[in-house]
Every structure is written in structure tokens, then in C-alpha cells.
Amino acid sequence: MANRSDAAGAARRAPLADELTICALVIRDTLTGRHLDAALARLLDGTAGAAAPSHVSARAVRDMAYAAMRQMGCLRFLAARLNARKPSPLLGALQLAALSQLLDGRRAAAVVIDQAVAAARHLPEDLGNRFSAGFLNATLRRFERERAALLQQAADEPEAVYNHPGWWIDAVRKAWPQDWQRLLRDSLEQAPLTLRVNRRGTAVTDASRGLAAAGLPNRQVGESALVLEQAVAVAQIPGFAEGAFTVQDAGAQLAAPLLRPADGERILDACAAPGGKTTHLLQLADCLVLALDLDAQRTGRIQENLRRERLPVHPSWPPPDWGAVVRQADATRPQGWWDGEPFDKILLDAPCSASGIVRRHPDVPWHRRRGDTTTFAAQQLLLLRALWPLLRPGGTLLYVTCSIFPEEGEAVISAFCSHLADCVRKPVSTSWSDGQAILSQLLPTSTDAREHDGFFYALLSRQS
Ligand SMILES: C[S@@+](CC[C@H](N)C(=O)[O-])C[C@H]1O[C@@H](n2cnc3c(N)ncnc32)[C@H](O)[C@@H]1O
């Protein structure tokens, strides 16, 4: 067996070393607050500085980074046991990336360790490269030697078992005492690619057949929702560039039909970016949609999606004809953007913890802090109170969050409705392939009959 300094010095660089380096940068950036997808895009497309070397597989880096985020509780537990002192954030992230690969076990441990050590010798932004290589060599080899004992210890630590922060585990257990273990485990599974068919252009059955004929077998999981058996890049989906499909979870696809848009109606989509629900409303009816979002960059994505889906966009409100008007604005301050004419319908897809979409965004629990749901709930109530007076008597407001925490769902709606004489809550019902269901809290699930993320829906009617 090579001694420590030999092994640290002898490692030859292969693509895996560069992939581990980029993955480490992604993990470091994600753990310091950047969204995982944004960190990946920035490092893979070169916006962060030099573009990734051509031999680096973007797919491999993405898979490694997602796998590491899904094992983060266990990885942090192991790092705490293996490290006598705290490494720099980047070296620590490289160690997490390598440990994740060792846990995964698909690559030989010797190869992973050699390439992690090779990566450590050339870490960008790191001054102590010799130390870094020795540190990784020693801790990764120790993990391999003591693997069974360390994993046995990890089995007693909830964070390491469920791979979510401890406070998050407690919150899910408190909210869903019957389902908490399933919910935590399922949220570590990769969600499938779900498409919404643009029914202005094609019937769902025809779209499904067309995809299958193009080598993309799929199954229908909602009124307009098709799940692809194998996820592919959207560029490989025939018709995607022309707006025949939108990537949208089947649970999210319930929102627009629940609001029942009709031709000629004035609808406010108060928190609209990137426009998934705006475009769905406009695919269902010739309505007029004012799409607002606070975030200027994300507002641009609403425009892009409307254009790709060939939906009319107008410069000012109200538009002369059906279509959308997109504005960057704060929905809690209508005095800055409202023309005083009431809306027939309002969609409030409020900012929230995103606890219902962890399958797609495994970094979410690691960005949140205990107490965040209280902050979100206050923001959600503020939005509801600001928007309710803009609804015409007889009009409908649909409140949505992609959260499974009752503090952002039932509690917000009860607090809001309890002081309003003109607010009536209507049942929210929808049909799945296994039958009709009344829902308000939709928990994430993946079965033969249902496949969707977690959402909360409340339909409120303003009395005349
Ligand atoms: C859950 S996302 C909306 C998703 C969108 N409805 C869709 O289906 O594509 C919530 C959005 O609310 C926006 N937001 C947060 N606070 C806001 C405010 N005060 N006014 C308007 N938009 C806000 C955020 O920028 C974010 O884009």
C-alpha cells in the first residue's frame, strides 16, 4: 500500500479530478447560499470565470452535485467524525464530493481517492495545496478503513439517516405524524420530468403518441400532464421550442384549471415568475392576465416563456385584446401598479419554504433556517391582505404554496379568513386517474396513479 506522501504525490489527473473540483465549487457555493441550479449553471457555462474544460462532462458534475446534496446529512456527519480540524470551505466541499462518490460505490474507491487527491493539489483559490492533498488522502482512506463502523454510528443520527437538517425533520414529523418518514425518504428521490401539453395546439392523447413515436415513452398523470419514462434535455423534445410543451409538475398544473379562467376575464397573477401558471391560464382561455413579479431577472423569464409558447404579450394594462402584460412590481403595494379596476380572479402563488419540491431542489432544506416558516407566513398574509380589496365582489382568489408546512397553508388561510365577513372558502376538488379528490394540502407522492410535488391550495370567493 502506498504511504501517505506517495499517494498524495502520485495521483494522475483524469477527467474525474476536474469534475470533482467543479462539483466542490458547486457544493461550496450552494452551502453558502446560492441555489444549486444557479451554482451549476454559473460554473458549467463559465459565467463564474473560466469555462469548464472540454473533457468535463456537465452531466457527470450535475449528477455528482445532486447526489451529494441528497446525502448531505450523512456526509456532514462523516466529515465531523473524520476531521480533526475544520478544512477551508472549498477543501471541505471537495471532501464531501469525494465521500459522496465513495458512498455511492459505483466507482472504485482507489480511483475516487486518487482523483480527489489530484484535484486537491490544484484547487483554485486554495493556498495550502500540499496540505490539502495530504488531508484528503488521510481522511478518505480512513473512511474506507472504518467505513462499516462509521456508517453504523451514522444510523443512530436522524440527520444522517434522513439527510435533512434536524429541525426540518422535527417540523415534518410534527406536521405529518403518520407520513413523516415516507415524506422525508421520498423527497430524496429524483422527480421525473413532467410536461404540460399545450392544449391550444394538440390533444393530450395525440401529444403523448407523438412523443412515444419520437422515442420518448410517457404516461399521463393529470388532465394535461405527461411524465417521461426517461428524462431528457428539453431540446430533445419535439415541439418544445415552439411551445407545444412546458416543464411543470402535475401538482402545479392544478392551479390554472382550479381558477377556471374564462374568455375576457381580467386576472391578476400576483407572483408570476417564471410564468408557469401565467402561460397555463392563457392556454385555457382568451383571458387578460396581469403578470407581476418583484424580481426583475425572473420577470424576464415570464416574457421568454410567453414568447416560446406563442402567447400574446402587450406593453400596457389593460391590453386591447386577450394576452398578458408583464410588470416588475411589488404585489403588496398596489398603489404603484393597479388602475383601480377590480380583477375577476386573482392567483396568489406566494413565496414559501418550497418544502413541497425538495425532490427537484434537494438544496432547499439546507438553505432554510428554523423560524423561516414564520417569516414566510407573515409575508403570505401581507400579500393576501393587500390583494383581497382588488378582487371584485363575486370574484375568486386562489392561494397556492409549494409547501407541506401547515404554518404556510391552513394557518395562513384561517388567520386571513377569520377577520373577513366577505370571504367564503370553497372546496378544492380535482380528478386523478384513481378518482375524484377534495384537497387542500397535497403531499408529494409518486405512485402508479399519482405523481406530483407537494402544494397547498385554497379557493376563496368574495361575497357580493
Ligand atoms: C412560487 S414563485 C412563483 C411561481 C410562478 N407562479 C410559476 O408558476 O411559475 C413565487 C414568486 O413570488 C415572487 N415574489 C415574492 N414577493 C413578491 C412580491 N411582494 N410581489 C411580487 N412578487 C413577489 C418571487 O420573486 C417568486 O418569483
Outline the structure in words:
There is one protein chain. The strands form 4 sheets. Strands 5, 6, 7, 8, 9, 10, 11, 14 and 17 form a 9-stranded mixed β-sheet that branches. A 4-stranded antiparallel β-sheet has the order 2-3-1-4, covered by helices on one side. It is built from 18 helices and 17 strands. The chain has helices at 4-10, 15-31, 36-44, 58-70, 72-82, 89-104, 109-121, 129-154, 158-162, 166-175, 180-186, 204-213, 255-259, 276-284, 296-308, 364-367, 372-387, 410-417, and strands spanning 194-197, 218-220, 225-228, 245-247, 266-269, 288-293, 313-314, 323-328, 343-349, 391-401, 423-426, 429-432, 435-438, 441-442, 445-446, 451-452, 455-462. Helix 2 crosses helix 6 and helix 7 (109-121) runs antiparallel to helix 8 (129-154). The chain is globular and about 70 Å long. Residues 1-10 have low confidence and may be disordered.
Features:
single chain, about 475 residues, alpha/beta, Alpha-Beta Plaits, 3 domains, nine-stranded mixed sheet, globular, disordered N terminus, binds S-adenosylmethionine
